[in-house]
Design brief:
The structure holds 2 protein chains of 2 kinds. Chain A is α+β, with helices and mostly antiparallel strands. Chain A contains 11 helices and 10 strands. In chain A, the strands form 3 sheets. In chain A, strands 1-4-5-8 form a 4-stranded mixed beta sheet. A 4-stranded antiparallel beta sheet of chain A has the order 2-3-7-6, with no helix packed on it. In chain A, strand 6 and strand 7 form a beta hairpin. In chain A, helix 4 crosses helix 6, helix 7 packs antiparallel against helix 8 and helix 8 runs antiparallel to helix 9. Chain A starts with 8 loop residues before the first helix and ends in a 5-residue tail after the last helix. Chain B has 3 domains: 118 residues, Acyl-CoA dehydrogenase/oxidase, N-terminal domain (Butyryl-Coa Dehydrogenase, subunit A, domain 1, Orthogonal Bundle); 98 residues, Butyryl-CoA Dehydrogenase, subunit A, domain 2 (Beta Barrel), CATH 2.40.110; 158 residues, Butyryl-CoA Dehydrogenase, subunit A, domain 3 (Up-down Bundle). Chain B has 11 helices and 10 strands. In chain B, strand 9 and strand 10 form a beta hairpin. The chains are: A alpha+beta, B alpha+beta. Chains A and B meet through helix 8, helix 9 and helix 11 of A and helix 7, strand 10, helix 8, helix 9 and helix 11 of B.
């Protein structure tokens, strides 16, 4: 297998550009929402066949093992070509979590399935009464023979309707002294009897998240990741990967692409006041890339991500929102139009970055929670 | 790409900078110097030379260490942290680079050797207007005269001029840029000092028909433009490192204060409004630090002129604005005591202001970044 990291940056960039531009289906370019599995399955399999499905996984597990610099190029080129976001939780979260916390049998069973597109994952974390206060979760699992039996409900489960598997945080010891103790991390097949779904329509009119109900759902004992009652550590480890993923410049780059296209279509480049704001945001994003590179490098060396990774999530999602807001402002009267807007030969969806960036400061731990974490664990401020 | 060799240099430097720069150790001296016109003291300067820091970048043939900007950044960050008033970046980076990239002449080698040993203090005097980041707007003229030049013009914003022995001056000679050496005591060369917020000063250097002999020409034409442009970008990056040192120290002071100051029966650092503000500033600090490290590594890899300018402006823009935001917030975190002259916070606020303004402030660098980006897009189209 090729070592991409020894390749010249520009050669790698051109290979990525050519591949994404020629192979990604035209009809799904710059889709204003996440892609459904039925839409992106062929693309997923094509990436998988090329060995490009897991750019940040280690090579031994079927990833590309890209260095931070190469990974940024990979992201820049996916956004340039308008490649949509797939149900990617297996690639961004479960994979890295199993690599770090799983056992050999779990890695051998699940990782190849993720690479091959045979397992699509969703996240069973939040509950109706456990959002920011995640550790107060009440969905429970009881060991009966060789199975854990799960009862309860998870909510805001993105793309659950496309998932074949779900990872869930469950309470396994109600007598534990602290609410963070007595939580376990389980893997569950979505086909298991007792699981039902309700889709939830979001503010943009898309059905991207769901509520998942568990009614006496059995999952085999071997699907426990890590130790019983010690799932909180794994949950936090996974959140580290989630924050690294959300904290990548990838999503704000989408908005910047649109903003630059709009600026050109509307001739705003020579407007000094606009140029100043655009430049500030471009620098905010470029500088995010520098900070992001540090954490990618740490993850690549197999080091645990500390609580400081929360910085990435805060800065990335707030930069994304600022970009999406300037996009609407720069669109002027066009900024009220839903869907693609035709302007001087260009066609730009002005509102989709706004909708897509809104939940970014809420999911994965709200940005207020991230700031609490940083204040407590990184700045060591008193509580 | 760093090698083990580089890393060992970096580790040794970091160690010696850490030992030398005990936080706060320099502050009484900073306060005392601010009351004088001296700006900095030569004894301290000699000590920096003996530690080898003035020669971090200078070539080994002139007694320097011949290391990179990554190492110079370690020194500058430490000096920024200690608020050392000595003009390290102006001399050991800006002047050293301008000389290094000039023609290999006996004068250039003598000036560089003197710079490294601490015996001579050359300063670059190239700016005539504010916001002219690359110092290309030059009205100073050099008229041919007896094989050399007669120079007329005025240079501004020369930090460290109070202790300079002479200037590396840019001047136009029939459309061709010249870098010239003019000793400070040359006839008709006048230096006026303008007091800065942090007790240091800008020199305004007025040149009225100053005679410059042929052998005082350091570089001409394209070579002169290239030497100056690279030196200015490298200096902007290392001034950014000083700013990182200033902001980190100031933010540590704020955080310590928030942990000890009690109001309403609790440490004020337990209040969420203050915690979130402190976190946002910490994110600015870490962005600045990440950008700085990436930029110095990129500059050490000798990118083309365009990329070099983009990198330098990215660093100065983020580091200048982050340092201003963090030091200004430090006043607020400290409350009324933060507004007193006795409180050290003010010293950090003022140094941040001086370093931010010098060599182009955040806004000037953002505008240059914008112009360079537009140019690149135009060429690609």
């Amino acid at each position: 297998m090729k070592d991409w990291n020894t390749m010249d940056d520009e050669v790698f960039r051109m290979e990525a550009r050519t591949f994404f531009e020629s192979e990604f289906p035209r009809e799904f370019r710059f889709l204003p929402r996440r892609m459904r599995w039925a839409e992106c399955r062929d693309w997923y399999l094509k990436l998988s066949k090329k060995g490009w499905i897991a750019p940040n996984w280690p090579r031994e597990h079927g990833g590309m093992g890209l260095s931070p610099a190469k990974l940024l190029i990979y992201f820049e080129e996916t956004e340039r070509a308008g490649v949509g976001r797939m149900p990617d939780q297996g690639l961004t979260m479960v994979g890295p979590t199993l690599i770090r916390f799983g056992n050999d049998a779990q890695r051998a069973f699940f990782l190849p399935k993720i690479i091959a597109g045979d397992a699509i994952w969703c996240q069973g974390y939040s509950e109706p009464n456990a959002g920011s206060d995640l550790a107060s979760l009440r969905t429970e699992a009881v060991l009966e023979g060789d199975d854990y039996v799960i009862n309860g409900s998870k909510i805001w489960t993105s793309m659950a309707h496309d998932a074949t598997h779900i990872y869930v945080l469950v309470r396994t010891d109600k007598q534990a002294k602290k609410k963070q103790e007595g939580i376990s991390f389980l893997l569950v097949d979505m086909k298991t009897p007792g699981i039902t779904l309700r889709t939830i329509r979001n503010i943009a009119g898309h059905e991207e998240f769901c509520q998942v109900f568990f009614d006496n759902v059995h999952t085999p004992k071997k699907n426990l990741v890590g130790e019983l009652h010690k799932g909180w550590t794994i949950a936090k480890g996974l959140l580290g990967f989630e924050r690294l993923n959300i904290g990548s410049p990838r999503r704000p780059l989408q908005a910047l692409e649109k903003l630059e296209a709009l600026a050109e279509a509307r001739g705003l480049i020579n407007d000094a006041a606009f140029a100043e704001r655009l430049t500030q945001l471009k620098l905010d994003l470029a500088d995010l890339g520098s900070l992001y590179g540090r954490y990618v490098e740490r993850a690549r060396r197999g080091e645990a991500l500390g609580q400081d990774v929360s910085m990435l999530k805060v800065w990335s999602m707030e930069t994304y929102q600022r970009l999406s807001e300037l996009l609407i402002e720069a669109a002027g009267d066009y900024g009220a139009i839903d869907g693609e807007v035709a302007m001087n030969g260009a066609s730009i969806d002005v509102l989709s970055p706004f909708y897509n960036s809104r939940p970014g400061t809420i999911y994965g731990g709200s940005n207020e929670i991230q700031r609490n974490i940083l204040a407590k664990y990184v700045l060591n401020l008193p509580s | 790409m760093t090698t083990d060799h580089d890393n060992s240099h970096a580790a040794l430097l970091a160690q010696s900078v850490g030992d030398f720069v005990k936080r706060g150790a320099d502050l009484p001296r900073v306060r005392a110097l601010a009351q004088t016109h001296a700006e900095f003291d030569r004894a301290q300067w000699k000590q920096l030379a003996e530690l080898g820091w003035l020669g971090v970048l200078a070539p080994e043939s002139c007694g320097g260490l011949g290391l990179g900007l990554a190492e110079a950044a370690i020194v500058a960050e430490g000096l920024g942290r200690a608020l050392t008033p000595e003009p390290y970046t102006a001399v050991a980076v800006l002047a050293a680079r301008a000389l290094e990239y000039s023609a290999d002449t006996p004068l250039r080698n003598e000036l560089l050797s003197g710079l490294v040993s601490g015996e001579g203090i050359p300063m670059v005097a190239c700016h005539e207007q504010a916001d002219d980041v690359a110092a290309t707007r030059i009205a100073t003229t050099a008229t041919p005269f007896e094989g050399g030049f007669r120079v007329n013009g005025q240079k501004q914003f020369v930090i460290g001029a109070a202790g300079a022995d002479g200037y590396i001056v840019s001047a136009q000679a029939a459309g061709e840029l010249q870098l010239l050496w003019i000793p400070r005591d040359a006839a008709a060369c006048a230096t006026e000092l303008i007091a800065l917020a942090d007790g240091r000063s800008y020199g305004t250097v007025t040149l009225r028909d100053v005679a410059v002999p042929r052998d005082h020409v350091l570089a001409s034409g394209k070579a002169a433009r290239g030497a100056l442009a690279r030196a200015l970008d490298h200096a902007a990056a290392i001034a950014s490192a000083e700013l990182v040192g200033v902001m980190k120290c100031a933010h540590e002071m704020s955080l310590e204060y928030m942990k000890t100051r009690v109001q309403f029966g609790k440490a004020i650092g337990s209040f969420q409004a203050l915690q979130h503000r402190a976190v946002d500033l910490y994110i600015q600090q870490e962005l600045a630090d990440a950008v700085l490290r990436e930029v110095v590594a990129q500059l050490d890899a000798a990118p083309d002129d365009h990329m070099r300018a983009l990198h330098a402006s990215r660093a100065k823009s983020r580091c200048a604005d982050a340092a201003l935001a963090i030091t200004r917030a430090a006043i607020q975190f400290h409350g009324a005591i933060g507004f007193t002259e006795d409180c050290d916070v003010g010293l950090y606020v003022k140094r941040a202001m001086t370093l931010s303004a010098w060599l182009g402030n955040g806004r000037a660098h953002r505008m240059r970044y914008a112009q360079l980006s537009v140019q690149a897009a135009g060429e690609a189209a």
